[in-house]
Predict the structure of Hotdog fold thioesterase.
Amino acid sequence: MSKYPNELELHKKHYEEITDKLKQDAFAQFLGIQLVEVGPGLAIAEMVVTENMLNAHGTTHGGVIFSLADFVFAVACNSYGKTSVGLNANIGFLAGSVKGDILRATAVEEKKNNRTAWYRIKVEANGELISNLDCLAYRKNDYFVPTDDME
């Protein structure tokens, strides 16, 4: 028997509890971010760009784009029910978006072990890639779902 629970099974068994917890992100709610999909090490979310999200040039503020990307990063790295926090994020802005655009962010796990995990995130507007991120998560010892029966 492993000293670590089977995280894929943990994700499946506690899927509703995990997604309900991650949907409670107050800042994501404030921005109007909608969680579209959650899988093991995967998250997709969308948001509509509003007037108050624009910079002085009339395009989506970089902080808004990063916030959407950071949210899917958080969901993906916490998708196994193990408490995880961001260590590093490197973002590139490739194109702009404007009011009314629907931004879609996708986080995909590239590599994980017991202590760290690496994710690639892309943000698109109207099917065009507007931003990409590489993010590193620190995986704490504790789980926010029960693991007693999974060890």
